[in-house]
C-alpha cells in the first residue's frame, strides 16, 4: 500500500486498509467493519520537525526512517492542521530575525487542537537565559500560543504547558487538557469518531467499567457517563495528572483513577500482592460488567488478556491490528466479535486504528 500523500488515491488506500482488517478478523467470524474516514488534508494536530541548516538558514526538515543524514526540507505540511501551517512560516521568520531565538535551535514541535489552542516547543543545544525568555514571551503574545523552551536540564514555560481540546460526543462537549510531551491522538476529527463509536458500542449499563491504559482520560470521560462507576488505570504520571484535571474540569465524579500498569492491576485483582497505590479503593465494591482497553502497539500481555476474559463485554481499541488479532485469538473460545470498526487515524500510511466489541458467548 502506498504511503505517499495523494488525496486523489485516498479512497483506494482506505479500501485497502478495510480489506486488511477484514482478512485479519475473518477467522473470528467478525461482522462487516464500520469504516470511519479522515479528512484528506490538514488532519494532523501535532508535528515535530528537526531543523537543518542550508545556505546559512535553518529549515524545517524531516527524514526517511533509517536515514538521518538526508533531510527533506519542508516549507508547508499539508497533512498538518491549518493552524500549524499558518504558524510555520511566521515562526521561521522570527527565528531568522533573532539571534537569541535562532542560536543552537535544533528542533521545533507543534501541538494544536480542533478548539484552536496551540503550543510551540523550541529545543536547544544551549542553556536558556533571561534574554531568551523575553523574546519567547513576545513570540507567544504575537502568535497567541504557549511557548516552551527546552535544553538539557531546562524547561521554561511561557503560558501553559498544555493545550485545551474540546470534543463532542452524543450531544455533550468534553474539555481535555493535553500536556506537552504526553501522548494524544494526532487526528482530532477521527478521535471524535472513535469516542462516539465506543460510547455507542458500550451502551447504557447499570454496572461498572474497568478501564486499562486510560491515558489523559480521552475515552474515560464519555464512557463514564454510560456506567455506574469506573476504575481506571494508567502508569504515566503526566497522563494521570492530566486525567485527574480533565475529570474535575468536566465534573465527572464516578471515576477512581489509580497509577498502576495493566499487569500490576491484574496482580491486584488476582490477589497476587497488594499495592499501596490502591489504598482507599475497595475493589470488592465494583460490579464490573465491561472492560475497556486501549493498549500500546504490543497489545495486551497474556495475563492481562486472561483478566479481560472475566468480563461480559470487552471493548478494545487497537493501534496495531496484528496484535489485536492475536489477543482475539486468545479470547475467541469465550467471546465473540459483535462489532468492529476501522478508524483512519493515519491516512497515507499503513498504520490504522481499529476497534472491536467482544461479548461473552
UniProtKB/TrEMBL annotation:
S-adenosyl-L-methionine binds at residues 185, 213, 218, 234, 294. GO terms for cellular component: cytosol. GO terms for molecular function: rRNA binding; tRNA (uracil(54)-C5)-methyltransferase activity, S-adenosyl methionine-dependent; tRNA binding. CDD domains: AdoMet_MTases (cd02440). It holds the Pfam family tRNA_U5-meth_tr. Keywords: Methyltransferase, S-adenosyl-L-methionine, Transferase, tRNA processing. One of its GO terms (biological process) is tRNA methylation. Gene3D superfamilies: 2.40.50.1070, Vaccinia Virus protein VP39. The active site is at residues 319, 353. It catalyses: uridine(341) in tmRNA + S-adenosyl-L-methionine = 5-methyluridine(341) in tmRNA + S-adenosyl-L-homocysteine + H(+); uridine(54) in tRNA + S-adenosyl-L-methionine = 5-methyluridine(54) in tRNA + S-adenosyl-L-homocysteine + H(+). Its EC number is 2.1.1.35. Dual-specificity methyltransferase that catalyzes the formation of 5-methyluridine at position 54 (m5U54) in all tRNAs, and that of position 341 (m5U341) in tmRNA (transfer-mRNA). Belongs to the class I-like SAM-binding methyltransferase superfamily. RNA M5U methyltransferase family. TrmA subfamily. This is tRNA/tmRNA (uracil-C(5))-methyltransferase. It comes from Pseudomonas abietaniphila. The gene is trmA.
Amino acid at each position: 500500500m502506498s504511503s505517499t500523500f495523494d488525496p486523489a488515491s485516498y479512497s483506494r488506500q482506505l479500501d485497502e486498509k478495510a480489506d486488511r482488517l477484514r482478512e485479519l478478523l475473518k477467522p473470528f467470524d467478525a461482522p462487516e467493519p464500520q469504516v470511519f474516514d479522515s479528512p484528506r488534508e490538514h488532519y494532523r494536530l501535532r508535528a515535530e520537525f528537526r531543523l537543518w541548516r542550508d545556505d546559512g538558514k535553518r529549515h524545517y526538515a524531516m527524514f526517511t526512517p533509517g536515514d538521518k543524514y538526508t533531510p527533506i526540507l519542508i516549507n508547508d505540511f499539508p497533512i498538518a492542521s491549518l493552524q500549524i501551517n499558518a504558524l510555520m512560516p511566521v515562526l521561521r521568520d522570527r527565528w531568522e530575525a533573532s539571534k537569541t531565538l535562532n542560536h543552537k535551535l535544533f528542533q521545533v514541535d507543534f501541538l494544536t487542537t480542533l478548539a484552536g489552542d496551540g503550543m510551540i516547543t523550541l529545543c536547544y543545544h544551549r542553556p536558556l537565559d533571561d534574554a531568551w525568555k523575553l523574546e519567547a514571551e513576545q513570540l507567544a503574545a504575537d502568535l497567541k500560543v504557549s511557548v516552551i523552551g527546552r535544553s538539557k536540564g531546562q524547561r521554561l514555560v511561557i503560558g501553559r504547558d498544555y493545550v485545551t481540546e474540546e470534543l463532542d460526543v452524543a450531544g455533550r462537549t468534553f474539555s481535555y487538557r493535553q500536556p506537552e510531551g504526553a501522548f494524544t491522538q494526532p487526528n482530532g476529527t477521527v478521535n471524535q469518531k472513535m469516542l462516539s463509536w465506543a460510547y455507542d458500542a458500550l451502551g447504557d449499563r447499570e454496572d461498572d467499567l474497568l478501564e486499562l491504559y486510560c491515558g489523559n482520560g480521552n475515552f474515560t470521560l464519555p464512557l463514564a457517563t454510560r456506567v455506574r462507576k469506573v476504575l481506571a488505570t494508567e502508569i504515566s504520571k503526566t497522563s494521570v495528572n492530566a486525567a485527574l484535571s480533565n475529570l474535575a474540569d468536566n465534573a465527572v465524579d464516578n471515576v477512581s483513577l489509580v497509577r498502576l500498569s495493566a499487569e500490576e492491576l491484574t496482580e491486584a485483582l488476582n490477589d497476587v500482592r497488594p499495592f499501596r497505590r490502591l489504598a482507599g479503593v475497595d475493589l470488592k465494591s465494583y460490579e464490573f460488567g465491561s472492560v475497556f482497553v486501549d493498549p500500546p502497539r504490543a497489545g495486551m500481555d497474556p495475563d492481562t488478556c486472561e483478566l479481560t476474559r472475566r468480563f461480559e463485554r470487552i471493548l478494545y481499541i487497537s493501534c496495531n491490528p496484528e496484535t489485536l488479532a492475536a489477543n482475539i485469538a486468545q479470547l475467541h473460545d469465550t467471546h465473540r466479535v459483535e462489532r468492529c470498526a476501522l478508524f483512519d487515524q493515519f491516512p497515507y500510511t499503513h498504520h490504522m486504528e481499529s476497534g472491536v466489541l467482544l461479548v461473552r458467548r
